[in-house]
Amino acid sequence: MELPGAGVNSNECESVSSKQEMSEEFEANTMDFLVDLPFATIDIKDDSEITDVPKVNLERSKENECNNKEQIKKRKKKRKDYQPNYFLSIPITNKEITKGIKILQNAIIRQDEQLARAMSSDGSFHITLLVMQLLNEDDVNVGIDALLELKPFVEEILQGKPLTLPFEGVDTFGNQVGFVKLAEGDHINSLLEIADAAKRTFQEKGILAGESRTFKPHLTFMKLSRLPWLRKKGVKKIDPKLYEKFIGHRFGEEVVHCIDLCSMLKKKQSNGYYHCESSIVIGELESPSSVVLQRYRREGPSWPSGDKNGGEPDDAELVRLSKRLVENAVLKAVQQYLEETQNKNKPGDGSSVKTEEADRNGTDSDNRK
């Protein structure tokens, strides 16, 4: 008895197999290219598997198989065109951590000066939760909406508890990307849940998001891919001896306060951080200080003083800026109230016009007398 599907042409099978190999090779090449961008490693479920042919109604199954192949082609085309250009970032701002990273970077540069330009710049330290493709302003607006919808999911995961990330030790991805490791603990599970919720939320909005690799949260401090010419000079990997003194080093703890939607390609802010489209505050109410910090990250040190040379504000500066923000809001409300009150007495509401006309009539009458 001949099994269903046994009559399928062997050339077709070879063709399908060849296409699958080409697709796998393309995906591998794409991942090599994307390593230069601020990516997390997030797993994407592969939806392109072909289901078994049913044993009944063979003609209908062949028709369905053709439809499946067309859908697979469309999915593969989308994946080929998928070039992430935005990402969700957890900014790392604890001065103890950033100072420790600078010490690490300088120690490596002292051993090999040509690696200086491979280092991540000041102000750009972050953990990537999710990467995505946003092609235009409409997509960016959808991404902002998705970020806002993510907040209640994050709050449900954290249950009112702060998310503290302790950084300890150094490692690499294939001796090409150097990063500071997250110490083991429950915070890892919370971070994984948040990353999964983010991917689900953005994908449900129709946004192409995620990667094909397993998500491993990390804090990048250098990438050899920034200096491709080093390969010609024989520097093809990060030598573990360069950072061996920091393998067990404790860099400090970061309390997560916000998640930012950032652009990989737009010009960075003057403080070194990525261009930020929007943010959500994590683990606290939106206090004036958090609002100030979010606006500062979006607009850079030029806000509100106009000085573009300053670093990120410290606690005292945040308090000062918060007070100014509240004072400006109160002043604006008072001005608006006064304007509305004055508008009621301006010509146009009827009563003042009638009064003026009455005064004029009375004056004319007196003059006639």
TrEMBL record:
Bias type Basic and acidic residues, positions: 354-369
Pfam families: AKAP7_NLS, AKAP7_RIRII_bdg
Subunit structure: Binds cAMP-dependent protein kinase (PKA). Interacts with PRKCA; only the cytoplasmic form is capable of interacting with PRKCA.
Classification via InterPro entries: AKAP7-like_phosphoesterase, AKAP7_isoform_gamma, AKAP7_RI-RII-bd_dom, Cyclic_Pdiesterase
Compositional bias annotation for Polar residues: 8-20
Cellular component, GO, one term: cytoplasm
Entry superkingdom: Eukaryota
Domain A-kinase anchor protein 7 RI-RII subunit-binding: 311-367
Region (Disordered): 1-22, 338-369
Protein name: A-kinase anchoring protein 7
Residues annotated as domain A-kinase anchor protein 7-like phosphoesterase: 84-281
Molecular function as annotated in GO: protein kinase A binding
